[in-house]
């Protein structure tokens, strides 16, 4: 059996009977692609499994041929994502942007600092949300989870209008699906408490960018975002110059440890496939 990986050595020793190659091959059954290689999937007649290294699959789902199983790397980057979210909350509270701007100007003035958000709502509370909650616990932060389906301690989207005015920060971890497209709109942002923080570490398309820019310009909220719509954010876009926002270039989950964990998961998936065992993280309905 032939497997194709963008970095064959990262998969480690192949299972018995498996050859790992570094480029497309008509005999390939199992692929671990980067986004630049996703266009080639339709040219692989023997393809059976696509295993990505990311938790999100919106960038590749529509390129996976019918009948081919798509698996995500859900869980592998949770720690890195959670650490970025904690950083985002602290960077806002301790006024990282105005302090860095002041440093760049060579000025020394006292910038009033804030306190870490005490109540944080996580929108799309799954495995990353649980990791974030664990890392915020030592700070005494109360986390309120909202997800598609109710479960113990987690609310549904129907509760969102009631919950938004009660929290100091909203963390968006929603995936990009038809159901979440533009979900965080002017109404949602307007329902947030004045002066609250909006953090987007999910997908840019889940947020109405024009509404976000308007809310920032009005001073109603502040924001820290790792994802945008459009993306990459073009030069001159009004979000760049909006007040009270910190922007990072969609790399919250890209740490060395997260990369290693993603490849370990992919290697285990290849072993499972070769052994005829059930695969993990099989994608259904965009999740």
Describe it.
- The chain is α/β, with parallel strands linked by helices and 287 residues long.
- The chain is built from eight helices and twelve strands.
- The chain has helices at 78-93, 96-104, 127-136, 160-163, 186-191, 209-217, 238-241, 256-275; strands spanning 2-5, 19-21, 28-32, 49-51, 69-71, 119-123, 142-147, 154-156, 169-172, 196-200, 221-225, 245-247.
- Strands 8-7-6-9-10-11-12 form a seven-stranded parallel beta sheet.
- Helix 1 (78-93) crosses helix 3 (127-136).
- The two termini are 28 Å apart.
- The mean pLDDT is 96.
Q: In summary, what is this structure?
A:
With 287 residues, this protein is an alpha/beta fold. Helices cover 27% and strands 17% of the residues.
Provide the succession of SSEs.
EEEEEHHEHEEHEHEHEHEH
Mean pLDDT: 96
Number of strands: 12
Radius of gyration: 21 Å
- Helix/strand-derived category reads alpha/beta
Low-confidence stretches: none
> Which percent range describes the beta-strand content?
15-25%
Main β-sheet: number of strands, strand sense, barrel status?
A: 7 strands, parallel
Distance between the first and last residues' Cα = 28 Å
**Gross morphology:** elongated
**Helicity level, as a percent range?**
25-40%
Strand adjacency order, main sheet = 8-7-6-9-10-11-12
Number of helices: 8
């Amino acid at each position: 059996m032939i497997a194709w990986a963008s970095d064959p050595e990262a998969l480690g020793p192949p299972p018995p009977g498996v050859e790992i190659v570094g480029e497309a091959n008509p005999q390939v059954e199992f692929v671990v692609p980067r986004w630049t290689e996703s266009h080639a999937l339709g040219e692989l007649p023997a393809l059976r499994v696509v295993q990505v290294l990311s938790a999100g699959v919106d960038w590749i789902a529509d390129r996976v041929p019918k009948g081919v199983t798509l698996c995500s790397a859900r869980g592998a980057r949770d720690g890195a994502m959670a650490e970025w979210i904690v950083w985002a909350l602290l960077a806002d509270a301790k006024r990282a942007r105005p302090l860095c701007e002041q440093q760049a100007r060579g000025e020394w003035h006292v910038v009033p600092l804030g306190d870490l958000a005490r109540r944080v709502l996580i929108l799309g509370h799954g495995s990353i949300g649980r990791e974030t909650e664990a890392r915020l616990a030592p700070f005494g932060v109360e986390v309120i989870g909202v997800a598609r389906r109710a479960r113990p301690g987690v609310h549904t989207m129907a509760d969102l209008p009631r919950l938004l005015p009660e929290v100091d920060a909203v963390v968006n971890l929603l995936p990009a699906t038809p159901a979440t497209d533009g979900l965080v709109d002017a109404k949602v942002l307007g329902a947030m408490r004045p002066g609250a923080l909006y953090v987007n570490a999910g997908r840019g398309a889940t947020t109405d960018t024009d509404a976000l820019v308007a809310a920032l310009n009005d001073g109603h909220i502040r924001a820290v975002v790792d994802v945008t719509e459009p993306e990459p954010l073009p030069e001159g876009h009004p979000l760049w110059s909006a007040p009270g926002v910190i922007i990072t270039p969609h790399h919250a989950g890209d740490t060395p440890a997260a990369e290693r964990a993603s490849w370990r998961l992919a290697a285990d998936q290849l072993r499972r496939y070769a052994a005829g065992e059930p695969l993990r993280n099989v994608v259904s309905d965009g999740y």
